[in-house]
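Narrative of activities, Objective 1.

The group set out to show that a structural description can be obtained from nothing but a protein's sequence at a throughput compatible with the screening campaign. Below is one input-output pair from the validation batch, recorded exactly as produced.
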Amino acid sequence: MAHREYIIFLRDKSGNFQLRDNVDSFGYDDRRGKYYVRFKKGENFFYYNADNVDVAEMVSQLEPPFRVMHKISGLEFHRVLGVRVFRGKFKKAYRIIFENGDIKSYPSEYLSVEEHIDDKRSLDVLEYLKEVSKYNVIPLEDDKTISLAEKFSKLSIRKKDSVLHIYVFIVAYCICEIRLEYRKRKK
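Output recorded for this entry:
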């Protein structure tokens, strides 16, 4: 197995499986009947019984559009290029690939990954709003300004069953209708 094709979970002293992303090499020793693990920055191999190891193998790679959010804070991950899904006997994990080249692995209980955000028109309108916002600057009293582009850069499509999603969709639809009406009057 290539290193990038699996994620290792090791059982800790309390009996819970913990994701170990600092594994340098990993395999199964037939002679001992145990898994061996060498961690990054380490020279020694550590041996684990099979019931203390869960090997999550890559089962899929998600195609955009998708959204990745931290379950506890609710914050959305930005500049995500790819999401790989890994499943073991007991655990599931995600490997997130960011635009800057960073690759981070997370247990599934930490992340919420929504795939196939399929409302293409809403995504197009949202991108249009982000583009238009670059040209809108709000002046402040102390001769400073706020760019709407900075505020809109973190905006994304929300869950389809949320009130915010419906509101954004309605606003975007109204903006499109206004643009169409404006074009008709202009001709």
